[in-house]
């Protein structure tokens, strides 16, 4: 596995190193020791699969508030996504910065999102599936979100989302002061 740190502190693109022979292809999808060597949280508390039948489906931007922040590793198992990671850690050198990148099933790459960051993806193809491991279990009532079009961040999406949940559309504009107060609550 090859690890490349992204412009958001602690976020990593993980490239598989597949072994191919007459039987097909084999690759490691996760390795606790490799994660630990790169300073990534190797804990897996929960695994999720998101199946998205329509191109243009947006999920996020989601996060969990402390102390239930969660790191996660995402992989596109079919289709393609444009993924955004936004740094919501007030003590981070990249606080309020974001990075966007494409993950495809064909490329076999994964994305590590550090705890304390928000995450979203937009499907680029019909019938896109995303598999992700989370280092913490989901904690109802501690989740939060940011609108995909929040002017605080000026996110750049490849195209306008076509399918968005009412919940994701209902998030208020991000207010760093209110967010900091919420973290202390």
SSE series: EEEEHEEEEEEEEEHH
CATH superfamily: Jelly Rolls
Q: What percentage of the residues does DSSP assign to strands (E)?
A: 35-45%
Total domain count: 1
What is the CATH class? Mainly Beta
Question: What would you call the shape?
Answer: globular
Output mean pLDDT: 93
Strand arrangement within the widest β-sheet reads 1-2-10-7-12-5
Largest sheet: 6 strands, antiparallel
The percent of residues in helical segments reads 10-25%
Which structural class do you get from the secondary structure elements?
A: mainly beta
User: Low-confidence runs (pLDDT<50, min 5 residues)?
Assistant: none
CATH architecture descriptor text: Sandwich
Number of helical segments with 4 or more residues: 3
Stated plainly, the CATH topology is called Jelly Rolls
Would you count the extended β strands for me?
A: 13
Q: Which value, in Å, is the CA radius of gyration? A: 16 Å
Span between termini: 39 Å
């Amino acid at each position: 596995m090859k690890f490349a740190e992204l412009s958001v502190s602690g976020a990593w693109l993980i490239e598989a190193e597949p072994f191919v022979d007459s039987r097909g292809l084999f690759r490691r999808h996760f390795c606790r020791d490799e994660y630990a060597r790169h300073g990534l949280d190797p804990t897996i508390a929960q695994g999720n699969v998101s199946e998205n039948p329509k191109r243009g489906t947006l999920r996020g931007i989601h996060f969990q508030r402390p102390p239930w922040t969660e790191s996660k590793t995402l992989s596109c198992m079919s289709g393609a996504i444009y993924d955004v990671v936004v740094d919501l850690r007030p003590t981070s050198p990249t606080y309020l910065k974001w990075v966007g990148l494409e993950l495809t099933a064909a490329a076999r790459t994964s994305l590590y999102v550090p705890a304390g960051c928000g995450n979203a993806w937009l499907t680029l193809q019909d019938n896109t599936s995303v598999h992700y491991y989370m280092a913490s279990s989901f904690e109802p009532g501690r989740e939060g979100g940011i609108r995909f079009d929040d002017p605080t961040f000026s996110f750049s999406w490849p195209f306008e989302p076509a399918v968005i949940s009412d919940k994701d559309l209902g998030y208020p504009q991000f207010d760093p002061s209110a967010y900091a107060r919420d973290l202390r609550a």
